[in-house]
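Trying the structure run again after the queue cleared.
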Amino acid sequence: MKASTVAIKVLYEHDDFIVVHKPINISVQNELNQEGILPVLCRQLGVAKLWLVHRLDKVTSGILILAKNANSAGTFGQLFEQKKIAKYYLAIGSKKPKKKQGLIKGGMKKVRDGKWMLDNKSVPIAITQFFSYGLQTNQRLFLVKPLTGKTHQIRVALKSLGSPILGDTLYQGVASDRTYLHAYGVQFTYWGNLVSICCPPETGQHFINTITINQLSSLATPWLLDWPKVKLTQTQ
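Done. Tokens:
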């Protein structure tokens, strides 16, 4: 396997963990013919090991948290389990959604070819909040807050709205220069220290054009928006 020479941008560093900007089209761990971000970061930081505390799909860019020791990994495990880490994503859809903001809720059912779908008869339940904003013709920018962490949750949720993510051909999105899904913001408290990070996308012609950048200027603190309160149960 050929070693990757990509440099990973560090967004925040703590004695116990690190927050980085994961590029698109790199997995978190090694694949058969491609090195993952974990060994790349270990080499870049000069450390023997890092702990994954959550994951991003290969096609998704943006904020990724990694622990520097087992104790920190355990702490993050509890924070995620207790729903105490708020995550915010950006996505662009190329079709008009059934509704412009609100809640998407349903059971996640695995189907063929590695895909998932919403199915009200299935568990576990996935819950996703979102706002959306008009961009250029036939495009809509989604700011998404997943309240659960299911596989392909946001990709399935936006497809269910009739506005699959641009470039996400697995879920019938229109082909483009990338899959337009980006881990944009995160906020959590780590041993009394409030951590708030926002990371705008850096690649994708529809993410970095003037119209989208101007819209993002009003979304620089997504945790301050008026997100409705949603009560979660143990099965979610």
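The two ends are 39 Å apart (CA to CA). Worth checking whether this holds up in the mutant runs.
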